[in-house]
Amino acid sequence: MKPILATLIAALALAGCASASRVVxxxxxxxxxxxxxxxxxxxxxxxxxxxTVQGAVDAAAAxxxxxxxxxxxxxxxxxxxxxxxxxNLTMTGAGRDATRLHNxxxxxxxxxxxxxxxxxxxxxxxxxxxxxxxxxxxxxENSFDYLANDALPEDDPxxxxxxxxxxxxxxxxxxxxxxxxxxxxxxxxTIFANGARAYFHNGLIAGxxxxxxxxxxxxxxxxxxxxxxxAGDDNDHGFQSFLLAPSTPIQQAIxxxxxxxxxxxxAGVPDSSVALARPWHPTTRFPDGRYAxxxxxxxxxxxxxxxxxHIHPDHWASMPGTARDGTKTDIFQxxxxxxxxxxxxxxxxxxxxxxxxxxxxxxxxxxxxxxxxGWQR
Length: 377
Description:
The chain has 5 helices and 28 strands. By secondary structure, the chain is mainly β.
């Protein structure tokens, strides 16, 4: 260890950094090894205190990942774009109604924040890209004014075409990420599961178009998935919105799983207007061209969930993808995807038989066991 870094760790330890329990027990070091940083609206020269979340994250990044770090974010609104690329870290707010992290970036102009100039990923208010990260007791929001943009006519020069705006990006190196008592707020593309394993418990995810999507392994449990309204009458073959858009690799057994949760809506969302999921085949570059990935056979599962009347009686929808000629004319059908539900109840649970035949090999207990392997809960 470098002498300066060793001195910093020793000084923090001698200063009496508080211990903190973790969402995932058994992964943290002993409590007296935990280093704690505070984030407050005003620090007044308090030690180990920062007035921005990113300031505390940057301080934590100077500490080796072998040392567990806690970041305690006080009450208030923090208008920031935050990237956490260090693992073995817990970030805890003062409660969903007290601590709010927000930004209003949108895909149209956020490409500069992503390594591949990808605006959707670059728009995230919070990017997580480490192993063993816990986020607790706060609200994370992308506050881009989606409804105002959605209300503009298609030929209005002010209308933003790429209106994806992430609250959270689980980036490619993320694994064993846990959310507890967290609200994720957005409209289109609220959370992008683009890493390995993640767990969302006892929280709220709100949005409208494909607001939970990606190729990662994400288990949502004991939570609320709230569909937000659209500004106009836009619909796609009778669907106004879509909850999930998985792009799960065909060789991956677990995709986006919603268990023992509530599918709700805000005022203004019509009956029978929202699909549980549609299959996203991302446009990908191959040796013979650039087109929709045929091996991204999305997996979406709803198990023992309450469904309000906004759920469409077909339950599942198709999704266009990029054809080899560059047009969005390849239509991917839910019948060719890995979509499944069981134990649904509530006014939106009744549905038509549209020919969904896929059945999972793993039960919910087996999914949990595999997801939490090496990550005890």
